[in-house]
Design brief:
Elements: H1 16-33, E1 48-51, E2 56-63, E3 82-87, E4 91-98, E5 108-110, E6 142-148, E7 153-158, E8 170-176, E9 183-186
Parallel strand pairs: 2-4, 3-8
Antiparallel strand pairs: 1-2, 3-9, 4-6, 5-7, 7-8
Length: 193
């Protein structure tokens, strides 16, 4: 029976339940056929800005940017797949925003640890943390971390909400004694060639 008095052209339409099933099956098949590398988030160069003469760097840290890992990601990356390189001694500003519409998130710079902590630990660099580390900031809330990038070394930018960081919500920060400018780099997975 036509709805709203509109009759579909004969022979051109399938019943809506068959079309719906075909679309769902096609989408599921397509999503399973896409390799994991094709689903990886790309680095957006606008996330990073810096002034070489002033030795200042600003990075936009976006919690839950994509649905990857149940939105437990920073800028669409999880498990250290993104590295921010900052020359040692540069004044660093990390502009944190929680884009996740469901979960609260926080961020702090910690020393690499195995196993990863399940809750916040002391920051590895003074002032390198957001407010409300344990409870996290709600959706679309913002905070700014301002600190001097020192000492040189490898660090993690880690979500302090219990369980989030340990579930993969962390990226890398490299404070480099040899870098002359900041950079964003894809981090190869361990064992990848």
């Amino acid at each position: 029976m036509p709805r709203l008095g509109i009759e579909p052209p004969a022979g051109r339409w399938l019943p809506s339940t068959a079309v719906g099933r075909a679309v769902v099956v096609g989408l599921v098949t397509l999503s399973l056929a896409v390799p994991a590398s094709a689903q990886q988030q790309r680095v957006d160069p606008t996330w990073l800005s810096f002034e070489t003469a002033a030795k200042t760097v600003r990075f936009q840290l976006i919690a839950g940017l994509t649905g990857l890992n149940g939105a437990l990601n920073f800028n669409g990356f999880r498990d250290g797949a993104l590295t921010i390189v900052v020359p040692v001694g540069w004044q660093t500003e990390i502009d944190f925003r929680n884009h996740d519409g469901m979960l609260p998130h926080s961020a702090q710079v910690i020393a690499p640890q195995t196993p990863l902590p399940t809750q916040p630990v002391g920051p590895a660099i003074p002032r390198a943390f957001t407010f409300k580390l344990v409870e996290g900031l709600p959706s679309e809330a913002t905070d700014i971390m301002r600190f001097a990038a020192q000492p040189a070394g490898e660090y993690l930018i880690f979500c302090g909400v219990p369980g989030h960081g340990a579930a993969g919500m962390w990226i890398r920060l490299r404070v480099s004694a040899t870098a002359t400018t900041p950079a964003l780099l894809l981090t190869p997975a361990p064992g990848a060639s």
